[in-house]
Amino acid sequence: MESHGQRQSYKGQTQERNRQKRSQDRDYDMTQEARRKAEEAEEAKNKTYETAQQAKEKTQSTMNQVKDKAAQAAEEARRKAQEAAEKTKETAQAGKEKTSGILQQTGETMKNIAQGAADAVRSTIGMAKNDDQDDPYYRETTTTTRTNTGTTGAPGTGNYPGNRNY
Q1: How many CB atoms lie within 10 A of CB 73?
Q2: Structure pTM?
Q3: Stretch 109-134: mean pLDDT, rounded?
Q4: Sign of the Cα pseudo-torsion (37, 41, 46, 50, in order)
Q5: 147 in the Ramachandran plot: left (φ > 0), alpha (ψ -120 to 50) or beta?
Q6: Distance between CA 145 and CA 158 in Å, rounded?
Q7: Is 163 exposed, middle or buried (0-12, 13-18, 19+ CB in 10 A)?
Q8: pLDDT at 49
Q9: Residues near 163 by Cβ (< 8 Å), separated by ≥ 6?
Q10: Do 166 and 158 form a contact (C-beta atoms < 8 A)?
């Protein structure tokens, strides 16, 4: 049989093995727990990366939309400014042509008025050309009165050379 000392030795060895086994189990559990936490941390890291990537893509998309809208607005403003400039140019050209026509018409009118005044002065002082009687303007503006009161050639008798009523 076994002696008390041997049993104690077996018991001590068993306890030691049990203690080592528990220690190993505890180490194993701690290792497993550390692995699980590492995996969770890796999953959290991946999820954070995916979330950040999605936010980056959304921000990029929004920026592109804003950029496109700004470009469209700038193009629209440029087009409208060009249309306004073209319209202004056309209006200025039309005004220039109208002003030119008015000035030409005014010049012609002033010339005709001056010519008429000059002819009236010439006619009044007896320096009118003889061919003025054939001038339709002269005929329209001049009233002829013929009087023949005598043959003396005195002024007012109708036979005076400066009198146009002969």
Answers
A1: 10
A2: 0.38
A3: 80
A4: positive
A5: beta
A6: 9
A7: middle
A8: 95
A9: 155, 156
A10: yes
Contact 131, 111 (CB under 8 A): no
- The single-letter code of the amino acid at 144 is T
Q: Pull the structure tokens for residue 4.
A: 């008390």
HEC sequence for the chain: CCCHHHHHHHHHHHHHHHHHHHHHHHHHHHHHHHHHHHHHHHHHHHHHHHHHHHHHHHHHHHHHHHHHHHHHHHHHHHHHHHHHHHHHHHHHHHHHHHHHHHHHHHHHHHHHHHHHHHHHHHHHHCCCCHHHHHCHHHHHHCCCCCCCCCCCCCCCCCCCCCCCCC
Tally of residues, the chain: 166
Residue 105, both tokens? 């018409």
